[in-house]
Structures are given as C-alpha cells and as structure tokens.
Amino acid sequence: MDVEQPLPREVKVVDSASLLRLEERAGDLGLSQRLDLTWVRANAAPCGTHYLWPALWHTLPHRPDLPDHVRWELLITLRTGDRLVSWLDVIPDDFTPLPKVTSREERMQVRRLLDQAPSVREWLLRKGEGPVRL
Fold first, then answer.
1. pTM (whole model) above 0.90
2. Using CA of residue 80, residue 33, residue 35, residue 120, what is the dihedral sign?
3. Could you read off the pLDDT of 102-121 as tens digits, one per residue?
4. Integer angstrom CA distances of residue 11 from 16, 61, 117
5. Are 133 and 23 in contact (CB under 8 A)?
6. Degrees (nearest 5) of the Cα angle 5, 12, 49?
7. Residue 3 pLDDT greater than 70, yes or no
8. Which long-range contacts (CB under 8 A, 24 or more apart) does 54-58 make?
9. Residue 85 φ then ψ, to 5°
C-alpha cells in the first residue's frame, strides 16, 4: 500500500467488543499506538460507542511483514461516561469492514469531542495514576 494515498474519508464507529479486538490485534502485531488491553477491559463502557478518526498512514520499513496501516484518533467512552482521546494503529483488513458514521452531524460532533476530550494520559495523571501504554 502506498502511504501517499489518501486517508480513508470515513469515521468509523465501534462497539466495545470490536474495540477490544482491534486493541488486541494491534498488540499481537506489535503496533506502537494502542492502549493496554487490561486497561481497556477495565475502563471502556461495556455498551459504549467509540469512534475512530483517520489521522495518517503509517509504515514500518524495518518490518516488511506488516502492511502499511492507518493511525486513527480514538475517542473512547469510559464506564464513567467520560470520553478520552488516544491513538490506535489498525491495518486495512481490520478497518475496512468496520461500520462508518454516515451522518454529517454525527461526524462533526465526533470531531468536536476529539478536539475537546482529554487524552488517556492526561486523565490518568489527573486521577493520580501512572500512564498506560499509548
């Protein structure tokens, strides 16, 4: 895949089970932008809606076994109702089948939330906890 190609033009919406699968896959592949799976299981709202907004194509020339992938901004909804921002690397085979946000209004709302929400790291530091793997 050519990293000069345009980013996907869609915002993806995922449930918590799908988010866990994506985080686990990123961990299995050794992709660098992901959250600790134990933390996600403990903190993501079980029936929550989470969003992925495309940020950039990422390639690992030193790992030719891995396909180029998209680094997504992740808007994660917590059990507490808080929304936080992180990053998640996802390979095309995994993000292509994900449902996309079809409403312009919902996409605009997601963008506003991404711009306003604290990062996972900021949230953890405010709570006095150490950072999780980002």
1. no
2. negative
3. 999 999 999 999 999 999 99
4. 16, 27, 17
5. no
6. 160
7. no
8. 54/7, 54/8, 54/9, 54/10, 54/11, 55/7, 55/87, 56/7, 57/1, 57/3, 57/4, 57/5, 57/7, 58/3, 58/33, 58/89
9. -110, 140
Token pair for 120? 């996972």
For residues 87 and 15, what is the distance between their CA atoms, to the nearest angstrom?
16
| Residue-level pLDDT at 69 | 87
Residue 1 tokens, joined: 């895949």
Task: Name the 3-class secondary structure at 50.
Answer: strand
What is the per-residue DSSP string for 73-112? EEEEEBTTS-EEEEEEEE-HHHHTTS-B---HHHHHHHHH
